[in-house]
Specification:
This protein is an alpha/beta fold. It is built from six helices and 14 strands. Helix 3 packs across helix 5. The longest helix has 12 residues.
């Protein structure tokens, strides 16, 4: 575990444990070309469900009441049809082929109607312990020091106060591609998204977080003890 990373110790998981006024956005607009599949990555089947169905189900099991936003793009019609009976609002990123996760993040953020905003990358498979019993009164990111994410993924430096200072490639502590904003951080994000142009829309989500930090945002770094999380990056990941 990283020197300054807070370990979150959790009790036994029970259904709908978190009572918080937040929206959860799943960013699933991209093609996911690395996986070499004709399917949108969120539509890949893992056991009896698609990846995005697993995500929505896990999220619903973590919160007493929750507003779920699914941002789709590539083959959006198929995904929308699949989610027609699910508890989620659909936002379409029509420029998914020429933008990046920052644009999907902006679209989801602009449709947030709650006090807090949690976003999750659409290629993640995770358990309920990843989200249960976190402190949703403050902004945070989730991190991994147990090699659940590969070395090539984005990492984060953590200061003595357990705050994220910069997200970048080549760092040993990995960012779990999940972040929560509330209060000051929500206002900073709003100011950034209000000035978005075509250049900004090609940014990655971690670059948005870096920009927020440079403007005074503060993100705690949490690593839940019982967290299990995997980025579905290749077909063989599904077998795991």
């Amino acid at each position: 575990m990283g020197r300054f990373t807070t370990s979150i110790t959790q009790n036994n998981t029970s259904k709908n444990t978190v009572d918080a006024d937040i929206s959860v956005a799943i960013l699933s607009a991209g093609v996911g070309a690395r996986i070499k599949s004709y399917e949108p990555r969120c539509m890949l089947r893992i056991c009896d469900k698609t990846l995005i169905e697993h995500q929505i189900s896990t999220i619903e099991n973590c919160f007493k009441k929750i507003d779920v936003i699914s941002v789709v793009g590539y083959e959006s019609g198929r995904i929308i049809k699949k989610l027609s009976d699910k508890n989620t609002r659909i936002i379409e990123n029509q420029s998914y082929s020429t933008t990046n996760t920052a644009e999907s993040l902006r679209l989801a953020f602009n449709n947030n109607v709650k006090k807090g905003f949690l976003f999750i990358h659409g290629d993640l498979l995770f358990n309920a312990e990843t989200l249960n019993q976190l402190d949703y009164r403050k902004s945070f990111i989730l991190v991994d020091n147990n090699k659940m994410f590969e070395d090539k993924e984005v990492g984060v430096t953590v200061d003595r106060n357990n705050k994220a200072t910069i997200l970048s490639y080549g760092l040993p502590t990995k960012w779990c591609q999940i972040a929560f904003m509330i209060g000051k951080e929500l206002k900073i994000a709003k100011s950034i998204f209000n000035r978005f142009d075509n250049h900004h829309k090609k940014m990655l989500s971690f670059e948005v977080i870096n920009k927020m930090i440079s403007m005074g945002a503060s993100f705690e770094c949490y690593e839940p003890n019982k967290m299990k999380i995997m980025e579905i990056d290749r077909i063989k990941d599904i077998v795991k």
